[in-house]
Amino acid sequence: MRLVVDLNKCQGYAQCAFLAPDVFAMHGEESLVYNPRAEEELREKLAHAVAACPVQAITAEGPAGPGHTPGEPGQERSDGR
């Protein structure tokens, strides 16, 4: 699974790091570090992290292709509302 974080949009709210700590971590108070090639076993956690981003800075691409949230094959990505 491939993850992309728009670091220009990211505001350091750290919701992703809280929900998927195996993939996302805060370095200092505002810098996000992450693994762009997450393991498939983390699909559910990543779906929650993508949906929880308040500024929608995270996108995930997996077997369902670009524009789909992990764990929801065949559905368009939601803005988490």
TrEMBL record:
- UniProt KW Cell wall biogenesis/degradation keyword: no
What does the function comment of this entry state? Ferredoxins are iron-sulfur proteins that transfer electrons in a wide variety of metabolic reactions.
Annotated organism of origin? Streptomyces yaanensis
The residues that cross the membrane are none
Protein name, per record: Ferredoxin
Q: What superkingdom does the record give?
A: Bacteria
Q: Which cofactor does it need?
A: [3Fe-4S] cluster
Q: Where is this region: Disordered?
A: 58-81
Q: Which UniProt keywords apply?
A: 3Fe-4S, Electron transport, Iron, Iron-sulfur, Metal-binding, Transport
